[in-house]
Amino acid sequence: MSIERIHINSSSDKNQVLEFCDLANDDIRPASVNIKSTDWQNNSSSLMHKIFIDKIYDGDKAGYILYKDSDTGKILSGCGYHPFNIDPNIIVCYSRAYSPVDVFATVNHWQNFNEDSKRITMENGFYGSVAYTNEYNRKLLRMLMILSNKETFRNRKEDRWVVKMIGPYLIYNTRQLMLYSIHKEGYEQQFLNLMEQYKV
Fold it and tell me: Of 23, 45, 121, 132, which has the fewest beta carbons less than 10 angstroms from its beta carbon?
């Protein structure tokens, strides 16, 4: 399978993003709530609102990526990235991450974005990355942490990006769990100290 990456920001074609968000409208999983296209202009937590009204994926260090099967044209998943509002040295990855029900179990799309997020982090000079979500996604975070760490140690690189889970924290007035990975030597404790004021 050949994967096409479509980079999205507020200047992108709305219909292209709506096609992706419409896939979540009948999805009953909790993670689909922020992806649904229904009433997106008034739903400040929706992906469409974040892209086209809040414009959080604009700028040279931010974006949203749609992953599409080049052979079938089917959208497989989407993930965003942007600087962390609490610490500008850190990038948020897996922002508004979503994959439709019918491809979740059959496509290893998380690995695509895992590789992209590491590249984006390094190219933009960030000290590390975070991913956060509501507590109902604890199992998903644990799975991502395990997969990321297995991949890291299998490659046996010197720059091992060990992923850890912490929290909960109050982020954007919501109780959230967080995965983080710091690659800049000596910065981890400074980051944890900064996050301490948001702990709940």
Answer: 45
